[in-house]
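Colleagues,

For the teaching module next term, I've prepared a clean inverse folding example: a structure given as tokens, and then the sequence designed for it. I'd like students to try predicting residues themselves before seeing the answer, so please don't circulate the second half yet.
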């Protein structure tokens, strides 16, 4: 039996148990924080007091554009390994990638037709 696998596994498991335990114990080390009003004050980007409600609503277009970006950005992750192994996949791999890109283009056309990319 090969024991070269068990030593790194044991070290990782010990670290996975010990590190969170040490983080938990670190709250008892050092100076205790008392109730301080300056710590509880709002401070953003150099402005001490904010004049607007912190629960201000954002336009839904921001979220929609972010989701569309993530969707099409993740698809690039599927294209990179295909490009690297293009010679090994031959014509079948080329056909599969063109099918994949066709569905991506169909999704982009659908998003465009729905008006998700228009910013009014």
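(Answer key — instructors only)
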């Amino acid at each position: 039996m090969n024991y070269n696998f068990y030593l790194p596994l044991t070290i990782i498991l010990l670290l996975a148990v010990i590190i969170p335990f040490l983080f938990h114990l670190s709250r008892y080390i050092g100076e205790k924080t008392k109730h301080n009003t300056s710590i509880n004050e709002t401070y953003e980007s150099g402005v001490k007091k904010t004049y607007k409600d912190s629960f201000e609503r954002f336009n839904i277009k921001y979220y929609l554009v972010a989701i569309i970006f993530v969707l099409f950005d993740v698809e690039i992750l599927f294209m990179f390994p295909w490009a690297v192994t293009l010679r090994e996949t031959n014509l079948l791999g080329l056909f599969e990638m063109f099918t994949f890109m066709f569905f991506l283009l169909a999704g982009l056309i659908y998003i465009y037709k729905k008006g998700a990319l228009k910013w009014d």
